[in-house]
């Protein structure tokens, strides 16, 4: 077989298998075979890129990232729906339609809680996909939509133009998995599948969207050039025949049947792979729709029924407290198991002490529960009439239930936190922060490795990292000998990051990168900082009374003192690297060359001397830096010959201001032959 036929055959087999898997949910090929064939197709496409077709399954993995989304005008507007909230309103709707149209049939279908998109095909090939936007103009998210496997790239019929409308969603199981992973990595969680889908579809990098495994259900034919249909049901059957996954619908005549179907759909929501935020009732006959028409925003021929959030009472058997990664104590009620909106609920968050006080929730109470955003159970109210005798108001514990350290309420909020620096609940987050790039910058010590180290009992404080051996690390999963060696080296190298970064890495509340620098510049050593009182701290610009109080508190705690002692033992530098003002250039020799635009020569010389440095007229091995302005000549060449680092004027100015040369990216246009060498120090 020649390569063209082989590629065509592979595409066809893979697309057929994809359709069976993603659209019909009836796989016919093993993952192993699929991956194997896909690899073969990728190889052939790499050899013959001119043969890549738009329907190739390889085009679904996400191409190059975009800078922004283009706007797209919808030829047929993407309308909204009129909401109704009761069976009576459904009856009213049916009556209105009956009066206008006589005998009417209705299509009743689930309302998928996702994002509306329009998909446009030309001559049977997927051309473009756009979000709803304001209904008339949306955003072009074609590349992201290509990664949605259940969207066909090529249709069997080659109509000149076809536009369909569908709802993109993140399947519930994918959502739960994604959030578990995000939690594991210490990332912010998505509130619900809808937000997760929206966030994914608006990624500028389609590769990220591809990983989110979005799905779609198509529910409307917006435009089909060259075909006519008489009912909604017919259009949906047609779309099915073209390979789309459609929203299931039932065609019914009577308002009572419609209401019964709405109830049935509501009860079946648990079995659906998507979240449902209502039921949609539509007039089925397309010419009937044209007769009643639309208002400015919504069609008159359809309504969206919104289910009231289900509420159920249950008895509080206990109140337990969890400690999150940030040390916040979160109280939860444990309730007798109760079935609510599709799942069995056994507990609900109580947020914080203020929430408990406001509702006066006690162990033994009967509370009414509902699911916020259909997902997280919450307490709506306490049924005080049912309160048994002898209950007492609930107060959060005074010590952390995980480590026993005292707890403390935030100075600026309702959260209560554990103060224990070694609290296992906080340890993972603290360690990951300690090693992160802007803190101690320990390469290869990410969240997954930290988790393993904690689980293996090898690390209980950040200081323990410095006592790890190659053998300790090599024993971890997925850690080879070489990576263990690299990790030990990276940990050792981080000893010299200096007080600036160390202060930030310690995770003292409100001490970020900037405060770390300011404090280090002022105190120079950790011990000097530790002795400073509130007054001295607040006298420093940029340090407010709350930050000062947090610093004092941190420094005074026995756990922190132990940590600092151990870090010192490990040889971690407790001194500022940045030279203090007036001494930044001590021991350095500068040579100025070319025309400087920001400083006059003698000004620059004075500034160098004011920082304890020397300015010299000629380049030698002893020169620390050459500062090169416009048209720099022989001195710059000499610097290059001797491998003396060259600074632009801006970089020189930044150094004067106390920044390290490496803090700034090199200039876009380096002088002369571009031999800037900041990467070397
Ligand atoms: P709303 O945004 O509340 O006005 O609701 C209208 C939205 O519901 C539409 O923009 C669609 O994106 C979405 N929707 C979900 N499922 C359906 C469905 N089966 N029929 C019509 N619209 C639907």
Could you describe the largest sheet, including whether it forms a barrel?
Answer: 5 strands, mixed
- What is the CATH architecture term of the largest domain? 2-Layer Sandwich
CATH homologous superfamily annotation of the largest domain: DNA ligase/mRNA capping enzyme
Percentage of residues in strands: 15-25%
Query: Which kinds of small molecule does this entry bind, naming each only once?
Result: adenosine monophosphate
Work out the number of β strands: 22
- Give the neighbour order of strands across the main sheet: 2-11-10-3-9
Task: Tell me the name of the CATH class of the largest domain.
Answer: Alpha Beta
Number of domains: 5
Helix count from the secondary structure assignment: 24
- Give average pLDDT, whole number: 88
The outline comes out as globular
What would you say this structure looks like, in words?
This protein has 681 residues and is an alpha+beta fold. The chain has five domains: 3-59, Helix Hairpins (Orthogonal Bundle), CATH 1.10.287; 71-305, 2-Layer Sandwich (D-amino Acid Aminotransferase, Chain A, domain 1), CATH 3.30.470.30; 311-386, Beta Barrel (OB fold (Dihydrolipoamide Acetyltransferase, E2P)); 424-569, 5' to 3' exonuclease, C-terminal subdomain (DNA polymerase, domain 1, Orthogonal Bundle), CATH 1.10.150; 582-681, BRCT domain (Rossmann fold, 3-Layer(aba) Sandwich). The chain has 24 helices and 22 strands. The strands form six sheets. A five-stranded mixed sheet has the order 2-11-10-3-9. The protein has a five-stranded antiparallel sheet with strand order 14-13-12-15-16, with no helix packed on it. It has a four-stranded antiparallel sheet with strand order 5-4-7-8. Strand 15 (366-372) and strand 16 form a beta hairpin. The longest helix has 21 residues, at 3-23. The two termini are 58 Å apart. The structure holds adenosine monophosphate.
